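re: that complex we talked abt at group meeting.

here r the seqs, copy pasted straight from the sheet so there may be weird spacing, ignore it
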Amino acid sequence: MAKGKTIVVGGGIAGLTAAERLGQAGVEVVLLEKADRLGGRVANLHRYYPRLCPPRCGLEVLLNSIDNLSNVEVLLSTEIAGVQKKSPGIYTVFLRDLKREADPYEIEAGGLILATGAELYNAAKISEYGYGNLPGVITSMELESLLRPEGPTGGRLVHPVTGKPVRRVAFIQCAGSRDKNHLSYCSGYCCTVTLKQIEYLHRECKDVSTWIFYRDIRTPGSKEEYYRHVREEYSPVFVRGMPSSIDGAGEGLTVRADDTLSGKKVEGNFDLVVLATGMVPSELPDIEGLEKDGHGFFPGHIPCAPTELRRSGIWAAGCAQQPMDVEDSVRSALSAVAQCLVRLQQENTVYPEVNKKKCDHCGRCVKECPYGACVLGPDGYPEIYPGDCRGCGVCQGGCPLSCLNLPGQGMKKIEDVVDKVLSGDVPGPAVLLFLCSNDAYPAWNRLVRKDEAKEVLKGVMPISVPCIGSVNMAWINEALIGGLDGVMLAGCHPGQCHHGGGANHADTRLQNLKETLGRMMIEPERLCLTGITIDDSDRLFSEIKRFSDVLAKLGPSPFK
Amino acid sequence: MPPKVDLQKCDGCKGEKEPLCVAICPGDLLMLNEETVKAACRSTRDCWDCMSCIKVCPQGALETKLPYQLGYHPARLIPLMGGKRVSWTCVSQDGKVERFNYKNRN
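got the structure back, here u go
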């Protein structure tokens, strides 16, 4: 079991959920929050959709529970300044106390849940909407705060500056979203937020009129029903077109847009214009090896393992993963909690053994491990924390001295194949075939059952490997020197490797070896790497056939 | 004659402080060029052609240029390291190839 506490970074709804659940499970938790209070953005919301219930209700339950848990420590006004791998399974986390101007101090973490959330896109960047210059142009988050009983107007729907009652409200969707100049992606939650706000505006005052300027209304799943309900119940005016300008010169705010459905110019006058802005990820210090997507989020390995990041023992929850609403944030936090508990409690793991007699401390295993599970220990030898290792064997494939091996893998298998070939039992051309156990090996298993394949496959000797990146080039050398005619690697297509770079590692190593073979006057065509998906047994067959034909033309191995 | 580094293939052992070629060289002649993060020979005339670095390089990025007493360009001598086996390929200047396979005592 990993020593050290589990650190939850961020005290918003995702972080609170994660800390509370882990606390209930008996895990030692430290909950960090940058602000001086817990609750994050949810604490400023007026109502949740679809029930229009106050967020306080769920928040109080979480806060009370955390209060009663002695194993959950809450650090307010504290931000994370850095994360470093310390030893197998342990991270050193640097914390900065924002109230005191002191140097960061460190704590040890057995695991980290990054629930750092997201910020709203800065609406002032959308110059045509005049946010920040025109009083009355606000964001949907500001409308939430405005309507709260604790808000600046005591919860009454009045103009935030003039104090006059508000009767005409325009909502502008995709404010800065789905726009190459601002945010290229859809934040996904803003459409439903606007529908919710329309519903309670109409509930609070009967004579309010609402307009929506939109591109598309995106309300997947049951939210579509909520959309229909709001549309039919309150009849807001839908204008399909993004406003070209907001004019605040005269009385109220004039919004002009081209309605792309009717092809006409539309103009409306409003007391309040609400910009439905998207989300951008919160800033977080760089953590070595932790890959973000192009926008700075941590979506995980989608779709199969959305909680899985490129550093074992670190998970993302809530809006740190991608823009999402409260429902998805809670769900995301719970899945991070589940993975965290599995790591703390799992017993059956497969991880490589280190042959310390051969190891030269070169550290390539540490650099290439896709999960950061491998670190050089105090004695300078690689150490692997079993709970962090996903058994991909990329370290085994990269080790220059072949001193890291997964159980059941290694040079011995190749030597057996070579002995078989040397005994003369294998009809030529003799091919050593490495198959990725995720995809290519199941495809192979279906292939060998076919009668028509038997003739072609009789010289093929298969070895299943956890990832094609786990094939060590010394194995290939051994096979070639031992007289095999060719070696084929059947991995995943680049970009589809579950372990990220497995297929790319194999490709780089094979290219290097091919170049050396070329200088040695050995045909580089005797090596080949191919991408096979699990349902590709026909293509695997044609690839093997093609390769066997190439080898037959080249003739027997020059080493024979 | 010194080892020649193939800069395309050498990956500087991914920024390792003491890459394998540096660690193994008995004459302490190899070093990591800090700017390029590639291996380099600091004193080419001191190399004894022991070829330890060639055998150990995980990228196959090193090649010994044969001294003319052994063979004029483009004669080559290239080792390939397996597990139990090691193979040496001799290519003479007129392209004649001979291979010698040995048991590896490691």
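couple things i noticed - Chain B touches chain A at residues 6, 9, 13-16, 18-20, 23, 56-61, 63, 76, 78, 80-87, 89, 91, 95, 97, 99, 101, 106 (CB under 8 Å). The longest strand of chain B covers residues 85-91.
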